[in-house]
């Protein structure tokens, strides 16, 4: 299995995704902003459809369109401060409408399923290059903004008072979320990409550790979920997205069981 080129590509892409998604996911969960994952994953669906119709690399069009939608979400948030979920619904509706029209037109190629459910067969060398470059940039940005993101996440008003450009930080973070989702769809698939963003974080939070420790455990759980999911999908011939999502939920349930068991022991 490990000698196969397509599996090597899938594992490389999976490793990057497993590092990036829980990193982003912890800030999303703490901001109670989880719906943005589903919203931008549907935006990436529209981007993929645009790429397939125009004959352009779908990952590039997904990245571009998702980034635009991320900026629109952040812009509209200033007009609907108390109704953030309304902004998500607007962008999600727009994206789904575009995707459905383009896919149903018959002009898109038959590759749609691999983007919806993920595929270990279709991760190409060019995909790996794009995922590695953009993923690396995202990780560097997250590390550079780490302290500011923590401050803005827990106390946005206090961050403004201390001189942090909160609006810029929020715009950059939303762009990073969009980029992360568009990079993850090759492995995870559009329908379940939000699971690898949220579920490893939910698992790590059960350990009740500090912020940095929770982040580290979220990345570890994300890595375990993705790797076991990829290996399982190879042997049972299933879509990796659904398999990884299922593994992540199983790991969460096992963590809850062990936590409950050891709490009784104590």
From TrEMBL:
Q: Which GO terms describe its cellular component?
A: ATP-binding cassette (ABC) transporter complex
Q: What is this protein called?
A: Metal ABC transporter permease
Main localisation: membrane
Q: How does it sit in the membrane?
A: Multi-pass membrane protein
Instruction: Recite the UniProt keywords alphabetically.
Output: Membrane, Transmembrane, Transmembrane helix, Transport
Please state where this protein is localized: Cell membrane; Membrane
Signal peptide limits:
none
Transmembrane segment boundaries:
12-33, 45-73, 85-103, 115-146, 171-202, 214-236, 242-262
Q: Which GO terms describe its biological process?
A: response to zinc ion; transmembrane transport
Respond yes or no to whether keyword Transmembrane is given for this record.
yes
Output the InterPro entries linked to this UniProt entry.
ABC_BtuC-like, ABC_TroCD
- The species this protein was found in: Clostridium diolis
From which residue to which does any coiled coil extend? none
Q: Which family does it belong to?
A: Belongs to the ABC-3 integral membrane protein family.
